[in-house]
Design goal:
Blueprint: E1 2-7, H1 19-33, E2 37-40, H2 60-69, E3 75-78, E4 81-82, H3 88-101, E5 108-111, H4 116-122, H5 129-148, E6 154-155, E7 160-161, E8 178-181, H6 188-195, E9 198-202, H7 207-224, E10 232-239, H8 252-264, E11 269-274, H9 281-294
Parallel strand pairs: 1-2, 1-11, 2-3, 4-5, 5-8, 8-9, 9-10, 10-11
Antiparallel strand pairs: 6-7
Length: 303
């Protein structure tokens, strides 16, 4: 099993003047600790669950490019890019650029978008739900076509590309792994089965509901003849961890038990944010006591 770190907030104790230094330190610590991946949200305003919209929020793909420059091995992705934020041809170029410059470390995280406030705030069109899912499917088709090197015109309902040229091509072949965020059973999980390499499910749904969503994904895979095992199953959650489990945090043993439960229902990678992410302690605990044990775990359904 693997662990990934999500960084959803950029309001740090030392303020904006040291924001870049702090973010770089987090990226380096995550890599040294043994995290498999690092993720940032692709939002432009901070989310209400974390704080007011005025809090610092970095643009996701630029932040990942910066993180790539201060690390060497850790995978990098958005959790997840809203399909409405960028034209799909430019988005594929952006993801490819990150993959090339990081020597093949990019994930392509994408979803149907939902945050109407930031769309309106920055003047981005916010189509109805059905249209956003249509745009998501066309974007996935365009991504596959561009990464295949197929320069034939793409003529969709919402997008027209006369020559979808993508040069240089991605380092990862056939393409950077595509992760679709969301748990909609009729559309989102069907698109995961058809187009993606990974899914992402909120860990807060609970063990039984996560398992049910995976069963739905398995059914979609069977209906199109795709091996369910090809798809990486990931979760997204939040963890507070300390060496002694003080103040309601997880101790190393409790954290290991938590990740073992996820592995037991078939989760390949548990992605989570850290409440004490600017402290050294959680990274030391994860590096020495948690990640080595998690890496030994067998994921249910995997050989």
């Amino acid at each position: 099993m693997r662990l990934g770190l999500q960084v959803p907030a950029f309001t740090y104790p030392n303020g904006q003047a040291e924001l870049g230094d702090t973010f770089a330190q987090i990226a380096r610590r995550a890599e040294r600790a043994g995290f498999y991946s690092m993720w940032v949200m692709d939002h432009f305003f901070q989310l209400s669950l974390i704080g007011p919209p005025e809090l610092e929020m970095l643009e996701g793909w630029s932040a990942l490019a910066f993180a790539a420059g201060v690390t060497n091995r850790i995978k990098l992705g958005t959790m997840v890019t809203g399909v409405t934020y960028r034209h799909p041809g430019l988005l594929v170029k952006t993801a490819t650029t990150l993959d090339v410059l990081s020597h093949g470390r990019a994930y392509f995280g994408i979803g149907a978008a939902w945050n109407e406030q930031e769309h309106k705030g920055l003047g981005v069109t916010f189509p109805p739900t059905a249209e956003r899912f249509e745009r998501l499917e066309e974007t996935l088709q365009i991504a596959h076509q561009m990464w295949e090197g197929n320069e034939q015109p793409f003529n969709g309902k919402h997008y027209t590309l006369e020559r979808p040229l993508n040069s240089p091509q991605s380092v990862q072949r056939p393409h950077p792994p595509i992760l679709i965020g969301g748990i909609g059973e009729r559309k989102t999980l069907r698109m995961v089965a058809q187009y993606a390499d990974a899914c992402n499910i909120f860990v807060g749904l609970g063990k039984d509901e996560i398992q049910r969503k995976l069963d739905v994904l398995r059914d979609h895979c069977q209906s199109i003849g795709r091996p369910y095992e090809e798809i990486e199953k990931t979760t997204l959650g939040h963890v507070a961890i300390t060496r002694d489990g003080r103040d309601g945090t997880l101790s190393p043993s409790a954290a290991i038990d938590h990740f073992a439960e996820l592995a037991g229902i078939g989760i390949d990678q548990a992605i989570f944010s850290l409440s004490n992410v600017t402290d050294l302690e959680p990274f030391d605990v994860l590096a020495t006591e948690v990640i080595p044990e998690v890496e030994k775990m067998s994921v249910a359904g995997r050989s």
